[in-house]
């Protein structure tokens, strides 16, 4: 069952939206927050987030930017009274933008669409791929892989659990992984786009803290692939 939260500084709006979500029968438990600060401080990850934009203190755009740094998968559904904020929503890859007052039908439709994506992503999380190492065959979950690096005539795999040395060339790995949202930022690296935290100049900051070089030659193509990937996460 997906984890769902509502964040709005208007208590009545929070309770009304919570009732609509519960009535849709998608989830039996909804977490509620009355400020962006409290949501960020909670350090919780959600699958679906209904978020107001015009809040006192930290607004919805600022809140979403912080959340996006640690979680690219959360489906952010903005619920606000102001249509002029819509272009800001695209900057943080919002899933949907609803104008108040929202109806039960609108909430249910957006929930069903977000749930469809959630279920698809959950299936993808279970996909594993087999690599050959000097000790034999190793099965690795694709979503556990941060990146591949070629150095000292070997291919190293950085994963959430361990570092592996596998057989094969980096070009072969790049070709094999491109169907799983991996891209080549440099002739010696193949990275999982899901774990790219930021790109500044010719440096790629990964979510595990690693710094990956972005070659000038591959910069345009890599940034394009990253933008397409993020658009697909909306």
Write a brief structural summary.
The protein is an alpha/beta fold. The chain has helices at 11-23, 36-42, 60-70, 86-91, 104-124, 170-177, 219-232; strands spanning 4-7, 30-33, 48-51, 75-80, 96-99, 128-133, 136-141, 145-151, 154-159, 163-166, 182-186, 189-192, 196-200, 203-206, 211-213.
* Uncertain ranges: none
SS content category: alpha/beta
The sequence of SSEs as H and E is EHEHEHEHEHEEEEEHEEEEEH
CATH topology of the largest domain: Rossmann fold
C-alpha geometry: elongated
Given this structure, which CATH class of the largest domain is correct? Alpha Beta
What CATH architecture label of the largest domain applies? 3-Layer(aba) Sandwich
- Portion of residues within helices: 25-40%
CATH superfamily of the largest domain: Response regulator
The fraction of residues assigned to DSSP E strands is 25-35%
Distance between the termini: 20 Å
Strand order of the largest sheet: 2-1-3-4-5
Give the biggest beta sheet.
Answer: 5 strands, parallel
Number of domains in the coordinates? 2
Average pLDDT metric: 89
Radius of gyration: 20 Å
Count of alpha and pi helical runs: 7
Work out the number of β strands: 15
């Amino acid at each position: 069952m997906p984890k769902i939260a509502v964040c709005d500084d208007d208590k009545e709006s929070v309770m009304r939206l919570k009732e609509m979500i519960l009535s849709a029968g998608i989830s039996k438990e909804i977490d509620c927050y009355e400020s962006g600060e409290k949501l960020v401080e909670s350090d919780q990850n959600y699958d679906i987030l209904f978020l107001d934009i015009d809040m006192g203190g930290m607004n919805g755009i600022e809140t979403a930017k912080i959340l996006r740094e640690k979680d690219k998968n959360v489906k952010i559904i903005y619920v606000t009274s102001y249509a002029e904020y819509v272009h800001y929503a695209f900057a943080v890859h919002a899933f949907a933008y609803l104008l108040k007052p929202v109806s039960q039908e609108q909430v249910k439709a957006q929930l069903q669409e977000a749930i469809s994506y959630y279920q698809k992503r959950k299936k993808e999380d279970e996909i594993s791929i087999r690599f050959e190492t000097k000790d034999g065959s190793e099965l690795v979950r694709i979503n556990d892989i941060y990146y591949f690096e070629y150095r000292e005539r070997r291919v190293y795999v950085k994963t959430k659990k361990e570092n592996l040395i596998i057989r094969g060339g980096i070009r072969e790995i790049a070709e094999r992984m491109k169907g799983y949202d991996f891209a080549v930022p440099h002739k010696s690296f193949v990275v999982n786009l899901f774990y790219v935290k930021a790109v500044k100049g010719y440096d790629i900051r990964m979510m595990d803290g690693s710094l990956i070089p972005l070659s000038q030659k591959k910069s345009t193509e890599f940034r394009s692939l990253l933008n397409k990937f993020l658009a697909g996460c909306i």
